[in-house]
Specification:
This protein is 62% helix and 12% strand. It has helices at residues 2-7, 9-29, 41-71, 76-102, 115-184, 190-205, 215-233, 258-268, 309-321; strands at 213-214, 239-244, 251-252, 278-285, 288-296, 326-332, 336-344.
Length: 346
């Protein structure tokens, strides 16, 4: 029912306006009666229908034909010319018809033959025509805003897809480096790492195409990444990952957390730092999600080159997906690096 009303809201808006106008005019015209007689309701209805029909005729001539053809294109001279001719003809015919209908019917008979009646009819009709014309401009404005919003949404989705597409090669680049290291050291974990990578790629190719995924799937993906890193490091690095709350009932933008985790291993663990450690936590409080990553810092000589692509990517995705709904804080200490991301998931 609500969708039906939304699709036909313009029709219902116009219909409601004319119903109110008809009711008001019917009440007004019912007071005109012959001396000593009760108001003739049937004649009042006919008069009200005549009045509303005339107003609708001239209003929708302007609404459907003149406004879109001339005024919207700023052809003001042609608009006023083509409006004034039918308006003058129709208002003249209506005034004479009104006088004929009310002849001998009301105490105010002389009023219908006065200039005051003609002037009031002209201004009253112009008011209705202008009001209905304003509805036309309001409708066009809302349609334009809807189109602009749709275009903005399409641009937003396109940019999000582009940013998401950047994650895949970024992840593959890091993983291929890991595979190269394992192959170079002839690690027995190489085949297991390839199998784990295949599992992660399925998530990236299929599940991450959705605008949002259950947080539980994102956590599974992060756990797979941690397992892959542990295989590369022969489980020598303590990694603690804790989750508080029920992630099954929470939806998040896919691959929004992984960049911070990648950076923790890339810049905090490296390849040969036995004293390295990584702590990850996700806490859910209602519709709020608190994601924290803290890691040790490796020596300056062991630090890999900084590209900055991953962090720039995730910050832009946060701006697009959670505008004014997130807080990103970092703390660079002497021996550790700390990142905290707060998301409002409403």
């Amino acid at each position: 029912m609500q969708q039906f009303l939304q699709r036909h809201r313009i029709f219902f808006l116009h219909f409601s306006f004319w119903c109110v106008y008809f009711s008001f005019f019917l009440y007004q015209i019912s007071s005109y009666n012959k001396q000593g007689q009760e108001p003739d309701f049937g004649k009042s209805v006919v008069s009200a229908c005549l009045q509303v029909g005339f107003m609708m005729l001239i209003s929708y001539l302007n609404y459907f034909y003149l406004l879109p053809r001339y005024l919207v294109n700023k052809n003001f001279g042609r608009y006023f010319l083509e409006f004034s001719i039918p308006f003058s003809i129709l208002i003249t015919l209506f005034i004479y018809l009104k006088r004929y209908q009310m002849d001998g019917y009301t105490f105010q008979e002389k009023y219908f033959y006065s200039e005051r009646f003609a002037v009031q009819m002209i201004w009253g009709t112009l008011f209705i025509v202008i009001f209905v014309g304003m509805l036309r401009f309001a409708e066009d404005w809302f349609k334009l805003e809807a189109v602009k919003k749709e275009v903005e949404n399409e641009k937003l989705i396109a940019e999000l897809r582009f940013l998401k597409a950047q994650i895949n090669p970024h992840f593959l680049f890091n993983t291929l480096n890991n595979l190269y290291y394992l192959a170079f050291t002839q690690s027995p974990n190489t085949t297991e790492v390839i199998a784990k990578l295949s599992q992660m790629m399925r998530y990236m190719i299929y599940d991450s195409n959705h605008l949002k995924v259950p947080l539980s799937k994102e956590i599974e993906y992060m756990e797979s990444y941690i397992s892959l890193e542990k295989l590369r490091l022969n489980n020598q690095i303590p990694v603690h990952f804790t989750v508080k709350g029920n992630p099954e009932q929470v939806m998040v933008v896919p691959l929004i957390f992984i960049t911070f985790l990648e950076n923790a291993f890339k810049h905090g663990v490296g390849n040969n730092n036995p004293q390295a450690w990584v702590n990850i936590s996700i806490e859910l409080h209602g519709k709020a999600c608190l994601y924290t990553v803290e890691n040790s810092k490796i020596s300056v000589n062991d630090k890999p080159e900084k590209s900055g692509v991953g962090l720039q990517n995730v910050q832009r995705r946060l701006e697009l997906s959670y505008p004014n709904q997130y807080e990103l804080c970092t703390r660079d200490q002497e021996n550790s690096y700390w990142v905290e991301l707060k998301l409002n998931l409403n």
